[in-house]
From TrEMBL:
Name of this chain's protein: HTH gntR-type domain-containing protein
Keyword field: DNA-binding, Transcription, Transcription regulation
Highest taxon, organism lineage: Bacteria
Origin organism lineage: Bacteria, Pseudomonadati, Pseudomonadota, Alphaproteobacteria, Caulobacterales
Gene3D superfamilies in alphabetical order: Winged helix-like DNA-binding domain superfamily/Winged helix DNA-binding domain
GO-annotated molecular function: DNA binding; DNA-binding transcription factor activity
């Protein structure tokens, strides 16, 4: 068996498990147990956890092991601030006209409205596209890491925020307009809306009842 195959299997499985919040916040990621569940040896699991720690997706506590992050409200706010800063840095650079109809791609993503995460996933793709069009490898890499760290937050947006589809349509219209200032203004509103609810997001991620906040 190719040595890279067990590593890729472990990396993909762990990346998805962290994003889907399979493990509770602050949980220790036990190498032996994970390896047994994936029917792998501990080595590729340990290597995958090391990679994820390098990407900032799990916490490496030296001498203790690997743990899932427990995002605090300031953590959520800082990640949102960094995400916005990277996007604004990209928009400050010259770029090509919009590559395709953002509204059409959004309509296709929304479909019949049955997928609550459709506008969330669409906006993630739009942000990545903006970076690819305007930024270099460094900013693209930073955005990918921040997006991965924010993924658990973004996945619970339908539980916390309303009118996500309407918000996505504003982003699509701003992108299609080709005016960086207009898109920058929409991005600031997008992030400010979430930043105001950093406490709600953090508590929801920790399993607390947001109705009691």
């Amino acid at each position: 068996m190719d040595r890279a195959e067990p590593f890729a299997t472990a990396l993909t499985a762990l990346r998805e498990a962290v994003a889907e919040r399979i493990y509770p916040p602050g949980a220790r990621l036990k190498v032996q147990g994970i390896a047994s569940g994936l029917r792998l040896s501990p080595t590729p699991v340990r290597e995958a956890l090391s990679r994820l720690a390098g990407e900032g997706l799990v916490e490496d506590r030296r001498g203790e092991g690997y743990f899932t992050w427990r995002l605090s409200p300031p953590d959520v706010a800082e990640l949102l601030d960094l995400h916005l800063a990277v996007l604004l840095a990209a928009l400050s650079r010259p770029g090509p006209p919009p590559a395709a109809s953002a509204s059409a791609s959004l309509d296709a993503a929304l479909g019949d409205g049955g997928d609550a995460l459709a506008p969330v996933n669409w906006s993630r793709r739009l942000f990545a596209q903006v970076l690819r069009e305007r930024a270099g490898r460094v900013l693209v890499g930073v955005q990918a890491q921040v997006d991965a760290r924010l993924r658990p937050v973004r996945r619970i947006e339908p539980q916390v925020l309303e009118n996500l589809a309407a918000e996505a349509r504003l982003l699509a219209a701003a992108y299609e307009g080709g005016a960086p200032r207009r898109l920058a203004a929409e991005l600031r509103r997008f992030h400010a809306r979430r930043r105001r609810l950093a406490v709600v997001f953090a508590r929801q991620l920790q399993g607390e009842d947001i109705d009691e906040i």
